[in-house]
Amino acid sequence: MRQVLLGLALWCVTQGGALADEGDQTPLEAAPRHADTTAITIATRQAPPFAFKDASGEWTGIAIELWKQIAARNGLDFHYRELGLSEMLEAVSEGRVDGAVAALTITSEREQRLDFSHPFHTSGLAIAVPHRGTNPLASLARLFSPAFLAVVAALLGLLIVVGVLIWLAERRTNTQFRHEPLSGIGSGLWWSAVTMTTVGYGDKAPTTLLGRAIAMLWMFAGLILISTFTAAITTTLTVSELDASIDAVDDLHLKRILALEGSTSDVFLADQDIRHRTVGTLSEALDQLAAGDADAVVHDAPILRYRIAAEFPQQLRVLPLELRRQAYGIALPPGSAMRESVNIALIEIIRSKDWNVVLDAYLGTD
User: Fold this and answer.
1) H helices then E strands: how many in the chain?
2) Whole-model pTM over 0.70
3) Which of 115, 150, 200, 207 has its CA 20 to 30 A from that of 48?
4) What average pLDDT score do residues 211-232 get?
């Protein structure tokens, strides 16, 4: 009996130890299955239309859509980390993040610090200026500008000279031009005006040989003068609407220019020895431009067009002038193992028809 009880006790101890071992093994085996050690960190920042948060707080934009497709093709799990431009480049170069996706232009200086993917979009630097809309009062004021009044005075003086000449040639034999100087010159002025404008009412016409010679010369001269006068009026009324004060890079030297600190536009302006002020954000630059505290903002063309169309459609506009061509890419740490797979996926994506749909959604169509 004692042997039976001893065997039963030994069996219970053995089974209890086995159960205890099984209970200890379960959390040790399960822990690795729930640990997330494969997610990579992608830096980004607000730079519409390449990267920005939508109404729901989700990241979207051209570069973001591209990266989502690249990650899906390569089976990459990732999360975003929002950083400033300088912080982003530094974090990538030091390997503290696995990549950066935003409006990052590829430059030789940046290439020395980190690696870039193949370009996925090309554009250039552009200039934003205040938009001068059509103002009837402003147009009326320009009609009385000194330059325009000088043109009118010169034309009136020429009409009087021709009127005097035709009166001198016709006053003795042609009753249409009276002998009295005041009324006769007045008739000559009327004739010279209707002849120059090719209206030709026919109420007055020269009859002498000298008078007809003057009339023929004046007809040909009038064609040239009326074209010149029309061009002068058009220029006076539209020159400020077109804002032709900035036609080339050299015109920026005399303007109050703004650029983002550390951006490619900042570097470009410094290389051109163009004096400018730097600000921290594009919103600050555009606000100052709209308020009249600056004459122009130099920045990436697609970003300027997107922001102005969304926030300053009636106040600002982008000039049709490209300062420097530049390409956008994905920044990767030096020697990144992802570079080859990222480039392969990137090329496949941007060559597809679906990618044009993405670009049209953010940039619009011409």
Assistant:
1) 13, 13
2) no
3) 115
4) 81
